[in-house]
Amino acid sequence: MGRSGQINKSFKVNFDLCTFCNHQCTFCSNSDDRTIKSSVNFSDFIAVLDNVTQYIKINNLSLSAKGEILLNKDLERIINASKNIYKVPYVYFSTNGSILNYQRSKTVLEAGVDSIKFSINAIDRETYKKKHLKDDFEKVIENLKKLIFLKKDKFPKVKIFISVVTDEAQDKIINGFKTILQESYEELDGILLYALQYTPKDNHIQNQNILVERKYCLISPLNEVYINSDCSLGFCCKDYFDEINFGSLLESDFLSLYNSSKYKNLRKCFINNDFKENSLCYNCLTYEAQKEEKRC
Ligand code: SF4
Ligand code: SF4
Fold this sequence. Notes:
- The chain has helices spanning 42-52, 75-84, 102-111, 125-132, 137-154, 170-181, 254-258, 261-272, 280-285, and strands at 10-15, 57-62, 91-95, 115-119, 159-165, 190-194, 224-227, 294-295.
- By secondary structure, it is an alpha/beta fold.
- Helix 2 runs parallel beside helix 3 and helix 3 packs across helix 5 (137-154).
């Protein structure tokens, strides 16, 4: 801790700007009634960032987690402020891409976003419809191609990824996107494959009996700060229903929440690698399928 109470290290901040969604993917917690639906407006974003940046440096700002961020009408102003007021080096978001048409792509790129990840969970229209419960496959591919065109034309530094939640073979998915995107495929910065992590009703994990070997945490709360869509300080995007909440960043000082005994105790679990049985992290770390993230 510095003289002014600053924490002398940089953090990744994940600020979940919008938890509404226009899709209802079968594998996603968003469709579950327990998901808190909310969207952060520009003035609240500024109030929260003013609060947080008194104490920490942000090296990486993710603006999405559990919803469709393009539904947030203040997104462009928020990206612009992140880059120009808070000087965050890397700002990015994930989207299902269905409303990221040419005009919207242009405005978010002009606002200064560094990276966009398209969540496309199938390589054909029928499977997509079954998984997203929306017949938007062709529209999404069209939007992705237009975004790639804009990148090539005017924003060459912007990174564009596709993410896919799938149980299908890696080669099949990659070859599928090569065929669909043709020459645009070469402009992509990567395809990220994720195994299924959530199914409704069993609360956080697909099958608690799958295994038992404890693996690493993909997030690490020691280096990341998670902010819920109601501007409260949360813990992790895998806390699908915001069950861990340290208090509102619109009402309380970030440092007092970060240093609360509740938060300190959770961080201590990571330092000591000792998790209470059936806690969020305990279940997450003992779930094998989650560790199958691959970068292609
Ligand atoms: S995976 Fe993304 S697009 Fe699908 S319901 Fe969840 S938030 Fe919406
Ligand atoms: S739930 Fe816990 S263990 Fe899992 S990714 Fe989040 S912080 Fe890491």
